[in-house]
From TrEMBL:
Binding residues for [4Fe-4S] cluster: C189, C196, C199, C205
PROSITE patterns found in the cross-reference section: ENDONUCLEASE_III_1
Family classification: Belongs to the Nth/MutY family.
Protein name (Swiss-Prot/TrEMBL): Endonuclease III
Originating species: Pseudodesulfovibrio portus
Domain HhH-GPD: 39-187
Length: 211
DNA sequence: CTCCCGATAT
DNA sequence: ATATCAGGAG
């Protein structure tokens, strides 16, 4: 089977498995999604969802976050790991949004990645889910692993993987394909023990039975 | 390439 | 004890 056919088939089958894609992160506006995604680096979304309600109760608005005491933010986000970087980045991002973007989360890749701690992955998530804009495909640990196992890329660098994936899908599917690969990766094809015996992509998987 | 870093599963 | 979890920066 050709790579393009396999890519299309993966989307078709997973779109049936996940009829209504929604991020597992809890959020109610673009800023909240930005913060939640920033906190999700090397951390489970479940853990992030325990932290964000406390964060947004303490600092409800972007202006509040911009004026927050970094040490207090560190305490709140500590359990998500990398807490010093994350606390500093969130405050810096909030400050820049207030000063440069009139207090509104910017709606383009070019602008979003000027915020500290925000690169293509986080920007793509915010653009796709909060604004319905598909400027890129978010490549996180799950997309990286699934794209490799399903033979959609041979690269290891997320930027290169994104370039391999983009031509395989029409732009309007870019947000969904991320969601599908993340959820399917979590539920069926995790890093350690892939469940090849119950996998509905088994027949088109180049690495079935292989680690 | 290294460093940031806590929580959880194996 | 070690690998992994919705990464990003120097």
């Amino acid at each position: 089977m050709k790579k393009t056919e396999r890519a299309t088939e993966i989307h078709a089958r997973l779109s049936r498995r996940y009829p209504e894609p929604e991020p597992a992160l809890h959020w109610s506006d673009p800023w909240q999604l930005l913060v939640a995604t920033a906190l999700s680096a090397q951390c489970t979304d479940e853990r992030v969802n325990k932290v964000t309600p406390i964060f947004f109760e303490k600092w409800p608005t972007i202006a509040d976050a911009a004026g927050a005491d970094v040490m207090e933010v560190e305490e709140v986000v500590r359990s998500t790991g990398f807490f010093r970087n994350k606390a500093r980045n969130i405050k810096a991002a909030a400050t820049r949004i207030m000063e440069v973007y009139s207090g509104e989360v910017p709606r383009s890749m070019a602008e979003l990645i000027t915020l500290g701690g925000v690169a293509r992955k986080t920007a793509s998530i915010v653009l796709a889910n909060a604004f319905g804009i598909n400027e890129g495909i978010a490549v996180d640990t799950h997309v990286k692993r699934l794209a490799f196992r399903m033979g959609l890329t041979a690269k290891t660098d997320p930027v290169q993987i994104e370039k391999d994936l983009m031509p395989l899908y029409p732009r309007e599917q870019w947000g969904d394909i991320n969601h599908y690969l993340v959820f399917f990766g979590r539920e069926v094809c995790p890093a350690r023990k892939p469940k090849c015996d119950i996998c509905e992509l088994n027949d088109i998987c180049p690495k079935k039975g292989v680690k």
